[in-house]
Amino acid sequence: MDIKQYLNTWASDYKHELQENIMPFWLEHGLDRQHGGVYTCLDREGRLMDTTKSVWFQGRFGFIAAYAYNQVEKNPDWLAASKSCVDFIEQHCIDADGHMFFEVTGDGQPLRKRRYVFSECFAAIAMSEYSIASGDTTYALKALDMFKNIQKFLSTPGFLEPKYLPTLQSRGHSITMILINTASRIRAAIADPILDKQIDESLSAIRHYFMHPEFKAVLEMVGPNGEFMDTCNGRLINPGHCIETSWFIMEEAKYRNWDKNLVQMALEILEWSWEWGWDKEYGGIINFRDCRNFPVQDYSQDMKFWWPQTEAIIATLYAYQATHDEKYLVMHKQISDWTYAHFPDKEFGEWYGYLHRDGTVAQPAKGNLFKGPFHIPRMMVCGYRLCIGN
Question: Which helix (H) or strand (E) holds 112?
């Protein structure tokens, strides 16, 4: 493999696809120029199917548009899109108690709240990235305040409805890993000890609670002290989540001048999760596995969703940058070849989100309340920067 040519080719492809396909698709079809923010419930051709707005995606696209502006091209339309989403969040998506909504109407009337703080996480990274892009430091301060709210909500008994009754005490991987990325993205805009402390606490929790060497797996749910729970939920492995965690850790290792212990931890998670997730018969990363190889109860367990593939693309590039071991570029080529053969819609643009196990399209919509302009453009921005060596 001519490594330099390989990386240069992918850098060019990521940048081109971001500029000419993904961002134009969402700016044309998703951006709400009347009320602000972004719609995500789009059919294959980009037609609006539902005006319900995902609050997650107001933050996610607010972040992506500013992130692309900061890392790829100073496109004023991207900066304006980020501001539109951030403004919509501030005007319509935060309840009187500070806890954000999950869904709102097109014009911003609240529809639903959930027990999570993911809306807050995505809003915070949108504000911090917009602060960097615009130079307006007030948004960095807003992001930091949002992060403090996240911590308050998580630590205040009874504020967030628990997932289970007190009979079952547990820890979840999702919030643990997302707080690494949330804190690190805010830290890029504003320094505060609470951000570094949160990252350290999440890293420690992943290492000591969620990594289970006896299964060579990161588990999605464990007991309060990392105890293995021999139930369907306790045995669950989400390879895409785990691979995403691995590159979050590598990003932090890079920030710490390639901290060797963090690199080793991240590579171990990547390789464990690749072994569980890669479909040796059809290719691609599947959704769920059981660490004891029992049948997984989730009906989508062997489907191929868009986002685990994008996380694997980023993680393998990070692993190569951390180690210069060519085997990670071989893995990058493996996942990229499969992903680009199945997900992009060459006729109408953007990517499909949901494939059957064999790679055929399960449904052709380009977005809904969970799929929209986030994982794919984030992969392209990260991939571009990693391929050019930054």
Answer: strand 110-112
Specify burial of residue 104 (Cβ count, 10 A radius: 0-12, 13-18, 19+).
buried
**In whole angstroms, what is the distance from residue 302 CA to residue 256 CA?**
37
Fill in the DSSP letter of residue 46. Answer: S
What is the C-alpha separation between 211 and 231, in angstroms, rounded?
17
Give me the helix-helix angle, 173-187 and 118-134, nearest 10°.
20
pLDDT cut 90: percent of the chain above it:
98
Dihedral angle computed from the Cα positions of residues 18, 24, 26 and 31, in that order, rounded to the nearest 10 degrees: 130
Give residue 171's pLDDT: 96
Q: Calculate mean pLDDT across residues 261-273.
A: 98
Query: Would strands 110-112 and 103-104 be described as parallel, antiparallel, or unpaired?
Result: antiparallel
Tell me the torsion sign for CA atoms 352, 290, 330, 244: positive
Pick from 95, 79, 91: nearest CA to 136:
79
Q: Kindly tell me if the per-residue pLDDT of 244 is higher than 90.
A: yes
Helices 260-277 and 306-323, axial angle in degrees (round to 10): 140
Q: How far apart are CA 375 and CA 320, in angstroms?
A: 20
215: confidence class by pLDDT, cuts 50, 70, 90: very high
Rounded to the nearest 5°, which phi and psi values hold at 304? Answer: -115, 105
Whether the per-residue pLDDT at 163 is higher than 90: the answer is no
Number of neighbours of residue 367 by Cβ within 10 angstroms: 27
The pLDDT of 175-199, averaged and rounded, is: 98
**How far is residue 204 from each of residues 34, 212, 352, measured CA to CA in Å?**
45, 13, 36
C-alpha 283 chain-centroid distance: 22
Task: State residue 310's pLDDT score.
Answer: 98
Q: Which residues on neighbouring strands pair with residue 237, listed in sequence order? A: 289
Contact present, 160 and 227 (Cβ < 8 Å): no
Tokens read off for 70: 């900061």
Burial per residue of 51-76, b for 16 or more beta-carbon CB atoms within 10 angstroms, e otherwise: ebbbbbbbbbbbbbbbbbbbbbeeee
| Mean pLDDT computed over 110-122 | 97
H or E segment to which residue 171 belongs: strand 171-172
